[in-house]
Write a structure and sequence with these properties.
The longest helix is centred in the middle third of the chain and has 28 residues. This protein has ten helices and four strands, in the order βαβββααααααααα. It is 61% helix and 8% strand. The mean pLDDT is 96.
């Protein structure tokens, strides 16, 4: 059985990480049997990141590379019937969410004081003194440096949120009145998109991106539809 290593759940969500949610969602979509193993130490991942999987003696890291491995090993159970144009659209959605929206999410959680307070409370509550005083600010500084190195952190707060709002508006337009992003059936692009929408909506952190999603009817309906299919307990808690 595939072993999925990911962070412990938080805020009533299956995971605080959109990449963990994305990979878990893909495994559900593909109908592949898997076991979730809680792992909070990123150093144990083959790329120094979480999530990662172990399967048949192999360890694969990075959600995108894991999905590629799963398709190569078990067949393309989720995206196999997509046209070349749909695949290209899905790739574009993934890149937007991975390379733009993710950094806006970090702004919301780690740079904004209200977000950091919630993150600290949820993710570091089990740390004993003095680690509870040392580790959270240390992680925060490291992520801020990563944001600057990537480029997003060089922008003003309003500019950063402007990028995130544009991403959500684009996602809404691409979804339109379809049930799922690429048509009538969920695809791996939906695993990515739902993971990010859930990460903004499900975490109790007020920010302009969360507010925009809440005011966007088709994204809210999409969120509910995906939860009804894959996370019914979240759909019922609406």
């Amino acid at each position: 059985m595939i072993e999925l290593y990911q962070f412990a759940p938080a805020w009533g969500l299956p995971n605080p990480s959109p990449f963990c949610i994305k990979l878990e969602l893909y495994l559900k979509m593909a109908g592949l049997p898997f076991e979730v193993i809680t792992e909070n130490d990123t150093r144990k991942g083959p790329k120094g990141k979480i999530p990662f999987i172990r399967d048949g003696g192999r360890t694969i890291g990075d959600s995108e590379l894991v999905i590629r491995y799963l398709k190569d090993t078990y067949g393309d159970r989720v995206d196999g019937k997509l046209t070349a144009e749909q695949r290209a659209r899905g790739h574009t959605i993934d890149r937007m969410l991975h390379d733009s929206t993710y950094w806006v999410l970090l702004q919301c959680r780690w740079v904004e004081d209200n977000g950091f307070d919630r993150v600290r409370e949820a993710l570091f509550r089990d740390l004993s003194w003095p680690l509870s005083a040392i580790v959270p600010p240390l992680v925060r500084r490291g992520l801020r440096r990563s944001m600057v190195a990537q480029g997003m952190g060089r922008h003003s707060r309003d500019e950063i949120f402007g990028f995130g709002l544009a991403d959500m508006d684009a996602l809404s337009v691409l979804l339109g009145d379809k049930a799922f992003l690429l048509g009538d059936s969920p695809s791996s692009a939906d695993a990515t998109a739902h993971a990010f929408v859930m990460s903004f909506l499900g975490a109790p952190i007020d920010n302009p991106i969360r507010e925009r999603i809440q005011r966007t009817a088709n994204l809210m309906a999409y969120y509910q539809r995906m939860n009804e299919r894959y996370y019914p307990s979240l759909a019922a808690a609406r």
